[in-house]
């Protein structure tokens, strides 16, 4: 939720600001280190690797790097890690002051497992290392490194010579004397001065920096680190959220670099590299042959420049700096720099998309399987006013026969924005209210933000202050910032003691008026500070062990999210899966639950951008992500709201939300035709929940994203590399939302030359490798077939779904399944009508194949971790559908759900009989065959989902 204009604007002018006030946020040229790093020229500091004195261990090497100009020394460490991954760390050799490193276990799940490293060859000019199937070549002078994946160069470090390391140092006399603004760069630095230290050329903002009215005291001076990373052979790079921008990252030659600095941006602008609420410094490069990834583990403000010799071609007149080499081979060059910390890179060498997802998942973790309700529909607004309002919204869904799983309360539910409390007039019986809602299997969520109202009568403030758990100013007084409650303190979530204490506050004994069916939403955790620089915390504020806010800024939100997650987990005796939504995030936030794209707007452009934004989040592990349905700010017209529901019903986190100043927009308030379509969109989500749940389980196990760009499934098909209006859910569903007004048809690209696709509304089959036009006319809402958005099931897949829609997802737990078996391309060749037995036999053989999985458990507890789940694989081949147990330890949970129907689409000829065989019985099944649509419907197999079976079509 929520940001607002600077507080002064709210107080002094009752004007609604219409768009982002860009002047609140720094451009690169207003940021000292960004300017210094971006303007850095390779010749200014070349490094040499001292290969004669390399230390070689079984899985790592250590080498000193010496700056040729000033003899400053760095330590380079290269670690071979399991699963085609290499870590490259560059730190001070003899630091004046330790540099911040994120503790292992906080972003990295654990100390990464090392693998063996062989020195293939070595002399004083270079050294060749073997790591599994990959080669790493380290060149001594100038220092740079190449990475080859089975002999193909895929990445290089410092090949442009942009390594720049600002070492901590004491303020020199010279600088102390000149402690006032100096004009620009030092003119004419003398010979001796140049030899002294790389950083001697001082700039006015090295020892303090002013932005608007805010001063950053920079007590330790300049400390930034930067380096270039090139991707030879690649044209496309992805990742580094959060930006309101395209899926395929763009050249930043004519803009600022992409910025990563968690910020609360009021009405953000689209298609630019400005920072938003979260930061994941992780980039994936992909081409037809290979995928590789690089994770830059640094929690400070970071900027990334991108150049591409293909995208930047044709602009040669302006083309400067760092693209070099043969431009017949595509290459993307990137330049990364952070304000403090060390250089710590994880290079994931794929070679395929699925490998890169697994490799990144091994490092930073995957999303623990969410409770089923988290994947269902969420209804939120700032604010549901009181208990009666909640009761009537809850009842409204039942009256209009629309399912919902979670009702949310924003900041106004509290006593004066004191989190963990309730407004006594509006919510006098909050626990009863929650129980009333949860009696229908539903849940509630309240907002709990990390700013704590400064109020000695507020127990949370008091307890945290007594224990000395708040962030400090540089003079050790408590940091005091303005946020929703007015003057507020901020717990230091980087400290494990703070997280533990915070977590204990969620117990129902502490959080009075709550129940175990209440889950949590952490907003404003960038952190947002209305009167702070760029609406966030001062960089010289102090955290645990004296670390500056500068060092930890981008990881603060993850720590808030984590502490809350641990609190809810603890509250449920470590056995109930928590649901916690966070606005700020960092790499690893996926382990604590959901994120969303913050304060978007009721505008078609915002609906459209939600697709690339969520695809990018999914690529970097944040798979449980969504955008506010309808747009947070302003009022959507009915068509926009309806299209938004249709799109979001196919996005991983599905929540409607709206600003305080907007009109009410619960789904049944739509005009009748639109209401009908909206209702259908939400119900379709519930129909497909078994599939969503199965795909989320796959994500936890393998790191494969839930919402996937087409190229993840069709990695060799270059046509897909830029597509962001169409995506996959899992490997089996292709979705193309409608994101423009007045559309009656849209064109959809169906990938895969040897692939067929089935329209989920009509079961009409289409060949892959082409654009198809699909009717999406909303005006014909009564004819549901033409009011849907294009969704196709991939030939060769089997999707489990449920057809009886109830009030909430958990009420459907024991309901029977329908399997949709979509046959692959082989079938298209097989419309034989010859009547001999032999040919009929052959044609059966050619009826096509399909397979798919189903995962099921109790939908709410952690018992699945002990094997309490069901996992089945359905296979259709040779006209036989069979189900087998693929639980790693054999069946270990009993389900009440059974299979009530099997629909085989793309089945080419009328069967004469359908028989079922299980371990205990054989029987005939009744069926229908629609020869025009080629759909075979097999009725009432009546098999419990636990049972092995074979259905044979004759
Ligand atoms: C809970 O439901 C009961 C029965 O409908 C109703 O009388 C009561 O007012 C509800 N309580 C709240 C707090 O909504």
Automatic annotation (TrEMBL):
Biased segments, Basic and acidic residues type: 170-183
Every Glycoside hydrolase family 31 TIM barrel domain range: 367-694
Glycosyl hydrolase family 31 C-terminal domain location: 703-799
Gene Ontology MF: a single term: carbohydrate binding
Enzyme class: hydrolase
A Pfam family it matches: Gal_mutarotas_2
Catalytic activity: N(4)-(alpha-D-Glc-(1->3)-alpha-D-Glc-(1->3)-alpha-D-Man-(1->2)-alpha-D-Man-(1->2)-alpha-D-Man-(1->3)-[alpha-D-Man-(1->2)-alpha-D-Man-(1->3)-[alpha-D-Man-(1->2)-alpha-D-Man-(1->6)]-alpha-D-Man-(1->6)]-beta-D-Man-(1->4)-beta-D-GlcNAc-(1->4)-beta-D-GlcNAc)-L-asparaginyl-[protein] + H2O = N(4)-(alpha-D-Glc-(1->3)-alpha-D-Man-(1->2)-alpha-D-Man-(1->2)-alpha-D-Man-(1->3)-[alpha-D-Man-(1->2)-alpha-D-Man-(1->3)-[alpha-D-Man-(1->2)-alpha-D-Man-(1->6)]-alpha-D-Man-(1->6)]-beta-D-Man-(1->4)-beta-D-GlcNAc-(1->4)-beta-D-GlcNAc)-L-asparaginyl-[protein] + beta-D-glucose; N(4)-(alpha-D-Glc-(1->3)-alpha-D-Man-(1->2)-alpha-D-Man-(1->2)-alpha-D-Man-(1->3)-[alpha-D-Man-(1->2)-alpha-D-Man-(1->3)-[alpha-D-Man-(1->2)-alpha-D-Man-(1->6)]-alpha-D-Man-(1->6)]-beta-D-Man-(1->4)-beta-D-GlcNAc-(1->4)-beta-D-GlcNAc)-L-asparaginyl-[protein] + H2O = N(4)-(alpha-D-Man-(1->2)-alpha-D-Man-(1->2)-alpha-D-Man-(1->3)-[alpha-D-Man-(1->2)-alpha-D-Man-(1->3)-[alpha-D-Man-(1->2)-alpha-D-Man-(1->6)]-alpha-D-Man-(1->6)]-beta-D-Man-(1->4)-beta-D-GlcNAc-(1->4)-beta-D-GlcNAc)-L-asparaginyl-[protein] (N-glucan mannose isomer 9A1,2,3B1,2,3) + beta-D-glucose
Leader sequence segment: 1-22
Protein name: Neutral alpha-glucosidase AB
Source organism of the structure: Paralvinella palmiformis
């Amino acid at each position: 939720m929520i940001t607002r204009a600077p507080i002064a604007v709210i107080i002094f002018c009752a004007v609604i600001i219409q768009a982002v006030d860009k002047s609140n946020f720094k451009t690169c040229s207003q940021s000292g280190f960004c300017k210094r790093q971006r303007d850095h020229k390779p010749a200014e500091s070349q490094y040499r690797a001292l290969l004669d004195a390399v230390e070689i261990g079984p899985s790592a090497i250590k080498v000193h790097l010496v700056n040729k100009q000033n003899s400053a020394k760095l330590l380079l460490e290269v670690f071979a890690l399991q699963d085609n991954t290499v870590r490259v760390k560059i730190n001070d050799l003899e630091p004046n002051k330790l540099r911040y490193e994120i503790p292992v276990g906080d972003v990295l799940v654990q100390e990464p497992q090392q693998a063996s490293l062989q020195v293939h060859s070595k002399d004083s000019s270079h050294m060749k290392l073997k790591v599994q199937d990959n080669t790493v070549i380290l060149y001594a002078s100038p220092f740079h490194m190449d990475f080859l994946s089975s002999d193909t160069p895929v990445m290089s470090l410092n090949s442009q010579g942009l390594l720049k390391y600002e070492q901590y140092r004491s303020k020199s006399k010279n600088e102390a004397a000149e402690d006032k603004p100096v004009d620009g760069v030092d003119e004419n630095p003398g010979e001796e001065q140049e030899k002294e230290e790389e950083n001697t050329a001082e700039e006015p903002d090295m020892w303090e920096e002013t932005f608007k009215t805010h001063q950053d005291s920079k007590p330790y001076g300049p400390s930034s680190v930067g380096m270039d990373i090139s991707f030879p052979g690649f044209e496309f790079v992805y990742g580094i959220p959060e930006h309101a921008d395209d899926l395929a990252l763009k050249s930043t030659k004519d803009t600022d670099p992409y910025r990563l600095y968690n910020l609360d941006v009021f009405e953000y602008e689209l298609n630019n590299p400005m920072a938003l609420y979260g930061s994941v410094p992780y980039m994936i490069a992909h081409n037809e042959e290979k995928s590789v990834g690089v994770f830059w583990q640094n929690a400070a403000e970071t900027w990334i420049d991108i150049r591409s010799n293909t995208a930047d071609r044709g602009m040669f007149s302006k083309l400067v700096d760092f693209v070099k080499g043969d431009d017949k081979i595509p290459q993307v060059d990137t330049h990364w720099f952070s304000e403090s910390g060390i250089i710590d890179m994880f290079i994931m060498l794929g070679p395929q998309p699925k490998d890169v997802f697994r490799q990144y998942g091994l490092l930073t973790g995957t999303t623990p399987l969410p409770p089923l309700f988290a994947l269902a529909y969420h209804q939120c607004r700032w604010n549901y006013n009181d208990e009666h309002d909640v009761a009537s919204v809850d009842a409204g869904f039942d009256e209009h026969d629309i399912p919902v799983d979670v009702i949310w309360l924003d900041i106004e539910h509290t006593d004066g924005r004191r989190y963990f409390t309730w407004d006594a007039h509006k919510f006098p019986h909050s626990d009863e209210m929650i129980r009333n809602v949860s009696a229908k299997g539903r849940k509630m969520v309240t907002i709990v933000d990390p700013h704590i109202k400064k109020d000695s009568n507020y127990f949370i403030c008091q307890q945290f202050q007594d224990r000395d758990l708040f962030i400090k100013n540089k003079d050790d007084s408590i940091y005091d910032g303005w946020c929703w409650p007015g003057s507020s303190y901020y717990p230091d979530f980087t400290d494990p003691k703070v997280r533990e204490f915070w977590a204990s506050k969620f117990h129902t004994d502490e959080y009075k008026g709550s129940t175990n069916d209440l889950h949590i939403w952490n907003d404003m955790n960038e952190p947002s500070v209305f009167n702070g620089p760029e609406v966030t915390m001062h960089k010289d504020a102090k955290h645990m062990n004296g670390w500056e806010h500068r060092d930890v800024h981008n990881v603060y939100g993850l720590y808030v999210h984590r502490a809350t997650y641990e609190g809810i987990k603890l509250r449920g005796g470590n056995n109930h899966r928590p649901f916690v939504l966070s606005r700020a995030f960092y790499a690893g936030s996926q382990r604590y639950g959901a994120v969303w794209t913050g304060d978007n707007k009721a505008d078609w452009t915002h609906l459209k951008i939600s697709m690339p934004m969520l695809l990018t989040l999914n690529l970097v592990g944040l798979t449980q992500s969504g955008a506010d349905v309808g747009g947070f700010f302003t009022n959507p017209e009915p068509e926009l709201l309806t299209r938004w529901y249709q799109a979001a019903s196919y996005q991983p986190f599905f929540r409607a939300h709206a600003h305080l100043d907007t009109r009410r927009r619960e789904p049944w308030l739509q005009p009748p035709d639109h209401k009908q379509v909206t209702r259908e969109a939400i119900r379709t989500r519930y129909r497909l929940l078994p599939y969503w749940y199965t795909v989320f389980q796959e994500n936890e196990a393998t790191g494969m994203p839930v919402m996937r760009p087409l190229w993840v499934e069709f990695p060799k098909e270059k046509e897909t590399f830029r597509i962001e209006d169409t995506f996959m859910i899992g490997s089996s569903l292709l979705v193309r939302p409608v994101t423009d007004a007045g559309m009656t048809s849209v064109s959809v690209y169906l990938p895969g030359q040897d692939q067929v696709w089935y329209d989920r509304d009509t079961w009409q089959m289409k060949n892959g490798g082409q654009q198809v036009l699909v009717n999406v006319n909303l005006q014909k809402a009564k004819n549901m077939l033409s009011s849907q958005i294009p969704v196709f099931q991939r030939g060769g897949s089997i999707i489990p779904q449920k057809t009886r829609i109830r009030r909430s997802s958990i009420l459907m737990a024991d309901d029977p399944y329908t399997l949709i078996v979509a046959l692959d391309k082989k079938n298209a060749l097989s419309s034989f009508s010859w009547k001999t037995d032999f040919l009929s036999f052959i044609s059966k053989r050619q009826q096509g194949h399909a397979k798919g999985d189903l995962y099921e458990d109790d939908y709410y507890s952690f018992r699945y971790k002990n094997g309490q789940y069901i996992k089945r694989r359905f296979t259709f081949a040779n006209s036989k559908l069979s189900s087998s147990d693929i639980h790693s330890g054999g069946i270990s949970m009993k389900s009440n759900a059974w299979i009530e129907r099997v629909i085989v689409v793309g089945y080419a000829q009328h069967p004469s009989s359908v028989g079922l065989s299980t371990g205990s019985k054989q029987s005939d099944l009744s069926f229908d065959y629609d020869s025009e649509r080629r759909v075979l419907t097999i009725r009432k197999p009546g098999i419990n989902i636990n049972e092995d079976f074979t259905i044979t079509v004759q």
